[in-house]
């Protein structure tokens, strides 16, 4: 992304950014072990929060029978940032494909929102 990593991070942890990637209605806890829930029923808890760099959390949509683990990272220097969404413990190829499409859409929405700011 053609933005400083600090700007991308600040957006991701803002209310607007959290609504895009975590879900509407969610407050993003910044302490390990603190739970969250989105308006759509996705639940989880923070596993780690490294300011300016990485968030690791469990992620379970209301219609899933298992947790997955999400990691969101921002890296880069100067005017170039890399944003990564990495999800583990998915149930199989179909769920992986669905989540890959979901995170691609999320990334596009984050890029569009940053361009508007």
UniProtKB/TrEMBL annotation:
<feature type="domain" description="Activator of Hsp90 ATPase homologue 1/2-like C-terminal">
    <location>
        <begin position="3"/>
        <end position="113"/>
    </location>
</feature>
<dbReference type="InterPro" id="IPR023393">
    <property type="entry name" value="START-like_dom_sf"/>
</dbReference>
<protein>
    <submittedName>
        <fullName>SRPBCC domain-containing protein</fullName>
    </submittedName>
</protein>
<comment type="similarity">
    <text>Belongs to the AHA1 family.</text>
</comment>
<dbReference type="InterPro" id="IPR013538">
    <property type="entry name" value="ASHA1/2-like_C"/>
</dbReference>
<dbReference type="Pfam" id="PF08327">
    <property type="entry name" value="AHSA1"/>
</dbReference>
């Amino acid at each position: 992304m053609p933005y400083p990593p600090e700007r991308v991070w600040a957006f991701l942890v803002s209310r607007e950014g959290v609504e895009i990637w975590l879900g509407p209605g969610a407050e993003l806890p910044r302490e390990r072990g603190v739970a969250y829930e989105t308006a759509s029923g996705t639940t989880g808890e923070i596993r780690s929060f490294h300011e300016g760099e990485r968030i690791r959390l469990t992620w379970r949509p209301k219609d899933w029978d298992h947790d997955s683990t999400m990691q969101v990272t921002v890296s880069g220097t100067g005017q170039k940032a890399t944003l990564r969404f990495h999800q583990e413990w998915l149930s199989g190829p179909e769920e992986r494909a669905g989540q890959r499409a979901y995170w691609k859409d999320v990334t596009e929405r984050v890029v569009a929102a940053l361009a508007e700011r």
